[in-house]
Amino acid sequence: MTTLSQDLLDLSDFAWQRLRHRVEGLTDEEYLWEPFDGCWSIRKTEAGYVADGTPIPPEPAPFTTLAWRITHIVDILQEDRTATWFGHQPLAEDGQPPVPASAADALAALDHAYAVWRYRLAALSPEDLGRAMGEVAGPYAEHAGSSFALHILDELIHHGAEVGTVRDFYRGAHPEDPFAAAIAGELTPAERPALLAEAAAAHRWDVITQLADLGFGVDERTANGFTAAHLAAGTGSLDTLRFLVGRGADLSVTDPRFNADVLGWAKWFKHADAIAYLESL
pTM surpassing 0.85? Predict the structure, then answer.
């Protein structure tokens, strides 16, 4: 049986990994994208970049950009109170939360902020989680440390979901077809080696053969660690699965999320035809 401390840490890591996957490939244009008038974002001042905001936000709240949202997540995770409210002290190397000026800076800041939060969370004892936080927590003085840990996790989860949603909005407003670009010779395997796996993830079974003929590897993985064969077996796309096997796809590799091979995916998602085919090989 796991402890409360381990359960909190496991939930935190799960939420973090989901967010980190969702921000891969972030560009400066997308990071600073303002789809509406009156958005809150980050602004350059003589003292550096600052995030928009007021002590009492307007209602309804303004739409916030990815720059604003990511800066907010960094602040939530790294601010001193995620140590002091538990009765601990920040380390000198923890630093103070920055306002990242670019997408690359934002990803680096996110990584550091999560490392700081994770270290602090892992250091909490059962007593830290069980006792009232006291005067340092202001109006929450009588609340147990566990309630504050859950609050920080709620912030990570719901703001992380917002980041993913804004990325979806941006993609919808800026459609691209990397598969067509590859078929037209505008994108090479060296530039985007996992494109065939990405096509399987997008259920673009119609381009798998062409991408393979162009040299895109059948055993490359998506950002989540899935091969095209995993995805074909998991969706019951038997024709694509047969094609990948014919091209020498490695069926023994396991994915990082489920630790399952290609047959394991077919079994988990209950695709009888794919199971029968794979077991016949």
Answer: no
